[in-house]
Amino acid sequence: MRESDQRGYRLTRTVLAVPANRRRMVESAARSTADAIFLDLEDAVPETEKADALQGASSALQELDWGDKTVLVRVNAYGSRFIEEEIRELAPLARLDSIIVPKAERPEHIEAIARAVHTAEGNTRRAPLAIDLLIETALGLVMVESLAQSSARVAALHLGVGDFAGSIGARSAEIGGSPDGYRQTSLSTGARYVETPLDLFAYPMMRVLVAARAFGLRAIDGPCGTYRDLTLTRAWAEKAAALGFDGKQVIHPSQIDATRDAFTPSGEDLAFAARVVDAMLQAEATGRGAVSVDGKMIDYANLRMAQRILMLGAAGRR
């Protein structure tokens, strides 16, 4: 789904993860204010409970009221002994919007999964089942551009921050956070040492985002693992929103409000965006391609950014 199609834009500011084998948690997620829910069959489920989790996801998709939420299921990785049965069971279910493929690394694997989905989904669905890709290994990041165009079913790229950090050997104890030792130390004037914290995820976030935008996909950032810390939850969500991501995974309902607010344009942002659009329309009418708004020079690049802000604001009111 390309962002240029504003009428079809689907909000995924908050993507709440919940283990599919925990029925009460699934029911709570369905009642929550998250934009999207993903029922997990992979990392959050012990191997001995995989069958129960699949049955739990299947029954929840058919029995619960999900409102207008986007509903996803994270299946097990390509090559696991579970994924084929998961696709056969889930693909025909009309209420499922997408499956999330974890540890996506090779385009041919995604092509094979897409073929299996095509075979399994039958004629019960109004729209083809989408596939979201979870980029969470060094190889997945290296291959992200090829993965993004591996199938017409691919709808979004998610950054798996915890597994990615582990994949590259980062010494970080908290999911989504940079290691304490990852900082630049320099000698300033006056012979004083200055330490500047650095962001482990600046490069992978940008790489995933650029690949998503290049091929018309959504970009979803990974979660803040310290879910009880709403200051960090909000700050990390604001970073992803400022960069241009469409949303962020959350691992606890307490994170929903702060994360949603970070991805929702403020009234001030919307008002400025509206002034930019109006000013550019007037400029076009007089044959100009740039104009000053609030003391800032504005051109067509600013217009496109303003239109996106207005689109997000309009989508949030629907």
UniProtKB/TrEMBL annotation:
SUPFAM superfamilies: Phosphoenolpyruvate/pyruvate domain. Substrate binds at residues 74, 136. One of its GO terms (molecular function) is lyase activity. The keyword Transmembrane helix does not apply. Its cofactor is Mg(2+). Mg(2+) binds at residues 136, 163. Gene3D superfamilies: Phosphoenolpyruvate-binding domains. Keywords: Lyase, Magnesium, Metal-binding. Residues 13-253 form the HpcH/HpaI aldolase/citrate lyase domain. The keyword Lyase applies. Pfam families: HpcH_HpaI. GO terms for biological process: oxaloacetate metabolic process. PANTHER family: HPCH_HPAI ALDOLASE_CITRATE LYASE DOMAIN-CONTAINING PROTEIN, LYASE BETA SUBUNIT, PUTATIVE (AFU_ORTHOLOGUE AFUA_4G13030)-RELATED. This is Malyl-CoA lyase. It comes from Caballeronia glathei.
